[in-house]
Amino acid sequence: MKYDAEIKRTFEKVALGVLRILGYEVVEIKPIPQEMQIGRLVADFLAIVKLKDGTEFILHIEFQTKNDPDMPKRMLGYFYVIISKHNLPVKQIVIYLGKEELSMSNRIEMRADGTSIVYEYEIIDLKKVDSEKFLESNIPDVYLLGILGKAQNISEIIKKIITRLRESFEKREISKHDMLEYINRLGVFAELRDIREDLKKEVQKAVIDIDITKTWLYQEGKQKGLEEGIQKGIQKGRKEGIQKGRKEGIREGIRKGIKQGIIEGMKKGLKEAILSVIKVKFGKTPSSIRKVIMHTDDIDKLRLMKKEILRSKTLKEFEIKIRSTNHDR
């Protein structure tokens, strides 16, 4: 799943920092480069860890977004292969990211005719870890995880994360590419907690000089507009065909409707996208500018507006450009 991939990517970059936050006195961590495989299973994270007291062990971590009743069996399978390949103790952790209550077992105990096994590993429910702990870090990949932790006011946590990201960007500690990656990653994490709307509000308030067209905010608006436009066109075409009273008329009407719907969808999608960029980049959308955009039905002009809002440094500069463009054509 995309959630697991994003968490894995985040954790691999900052495993040391996250483990310290979770209470492990780690001084060194060396990821094992070759992925562990057991049939179709691939270990999410595997590394040799050295603690402050000199202890060394193999750390194996799996990330789960859903409760899996077979998790103990899976972890036992990993354990067997790991100890077969490495002459070190093995510590296994399942980090649970799901929004549902944790119900997975972390233990296997069996006895039969003189044969017995007792196997156990650790489970960390991330939503029970205080979000503020993650925010104590100076590493963006770590404090992004604050959105998945325990928070009395999730909007405040999101606000702090966005503020930290903006400040890092303004200080040139992170690049535009990094900023885009972090915002999109936050969007993925927010879905895990059903707080996408909360995140959207805070991102839109932040003045961030990045290419907004590459974020989920822009893509959501564009896709929504396209889908609504196509549906509207189909309905209009069907109505026109029925009015003609012939099957061919219905078919032709639908064909024309789909074509018109795609065009209308593109227009609506461009308008939604332009308005999203304005709100994210400048924090507000003046009614005068909104009126010009909503009354523009020329796709070429809308595409030009999209380019101009990305180039413009102020709302006034953008307004002058789009008004002159409408007069020129």
Descriptive report:
There is one protein chain. The chain is α/β, with parallel strands linked by helices and 329 residues long. The chain folds into 3 domains: 2-128, Trna Endonuclease, Chain: A, domain 1; 131-210, no CATH class; 214-328, no CATH class. The protein has helices spanning 2-21, 71-85, 131-135, 140-143, 154-170, 176-192, 196-205, 216-244, 247-282, 287-294, 299-311, 315-328; strands at residues 26-31, 37-38, 41-42, 45-51, 56-64, 90-96, 107-112, 115-120, 122-125. The strands form 3 sheets. The chain has a 5-stranded mixed beta sheet, with helices on both faces. The protein has a two-stranded antiparallel ribbon with strand order 2-3. The two termini are 48 Å apart.
In a few lines, what is going on in this structure?
By secondary structure, the protein is α/β, with parallel strands linked by helices. The protein has helices at residues 2-21, 71-85, 131-135, 140-143, 154-170, 176-192, 196-205, 216-244, 247-282, 287-294, 299-311, 315-328; strands at 26-31, 37-38, 41-42, 45-51, 56-64, 90-96, 107-112, 115-120, 122-125. The strands form three sheets. Strands 1-4-5-6-9 form a five-stranded mixed sheet, sandwiched between helices.
